Amino acid sequence: MIRPTGRPWLSKREFAEATPAWLRGTAIGLPFGVIPAGGSEIPTFLAYGIEKRLDGRRKKPRFGTGAIRGLAAPEAAGNSTTGMAMGSLLALGLPVSATAAIMLAAFRQYGLQPGPLLFERSPDLVWALIASFFIAMVVLLILNLPFAMLWAKLLVIPRPYLYAAIAVFCGLGIYATSGATFDLVLLLAIGLLGFAMRAHDYPLAPLIIGMVLGPLAETSLRDAAMSANGDLTTLFQGPIVIAIYAVLLVVLVAAGRNRVLARRRAKTTRKETVGV
After folding, report:
1. 258 or 22: which carries more pLDDT confidence?
2. Residue 14 CB neighbour total at 10 angstroms
């Protein structure tokens, strides 16, 4: 029997290493708690990507060798998004995640409408719910500390066995949800696409984010078109909308420029290496 080994607490050096990542992850995750952008998946991937990019600028990159920042930042982003989403639900009535949407439906079943007036009409319910969040954090901490090292032993399982088990459970879950063979074929096609992208060194995070945001974007576009009586020009009206599009354009241009410059530097480095 393999006994778990390790420490349940961070050392001072590890704590100092993780603190900047926690702060960056929290800053990334908080805005997504009030934006209907698909939950905590997007800020989690963004936080991980930023930490990986920052680590690549170090003299001795540590990603791939157990860098604690690669875990601290995504976890902080996900936790801050979840907490902020609950605050948005209670204070503004905005269900920005699947969990918040389920809770909103439960509130309405009992004749409650989340929003500013909820704190005045049902203060006992609101503050008891907020207190339950803190209690849940303590309970999770008590449960996870003794078993964290045991869960880490899952990494000892050979990857082929682990991937096969994940694929089987994904297939069972999809078939149990829809009962359609087409969904299983679609799962296989997406898996093959992901394998091809990984084999050719294409990032998978944009694909996953697109799959998460795709249905949400389609629903939002349909609602906007119905509200505007089919006039899609309403998507490009107003100073706020134009400012958001301008920011997105600047981000895309900057990302493309950085990618082109990185390729030029790589080519220059190769030529210098070959010349030497």
Report:
1. 22
2. 13
Cβ pair 37, 177 in contact under 8 A: no
Type and span of the H or E element at 12: helix 12-32
Given a cut of 70, whether residue 179 has pLDDT beyond it is: yes
Note the pLDDT tens digit of each residue in 98-148: 677 777 777 777 777 787 788 888 888 888 888 888 898 888 888 877 777
Only one residue has tokens 């100073």, namely 239
Q: How far apart are CA 202 and CA 150, in angstroms?
A: 33
How does 196-213 read in b/e, with b if 16+ C-beta sit within 10 Å?
eeeeeeeeeeeeebeebb
Angle (nearest 5°) at CA 120 between 114 and 125:
65
Q: What is the DSSP string of 194-239?
A: HHHHHHTT--SHHHHHHHHHHHHHHHHHHHHHHHTTT-GGGGG-SH
Cα 253 to Cα 246, 247, 256, 260, 272: the distances in Å are: 11, 10, 5, 11, 29
Q: Indicate if the pLDDT at residue 2 is higher than 50.
A: no
| Residue in the structure block whose two tokens are 């080519």 | 267
Instruction: Please check whether residue 84 is in contact with residue 34, taking contact to mean a CB–CB distance below 8 angstroms.
Output: yes
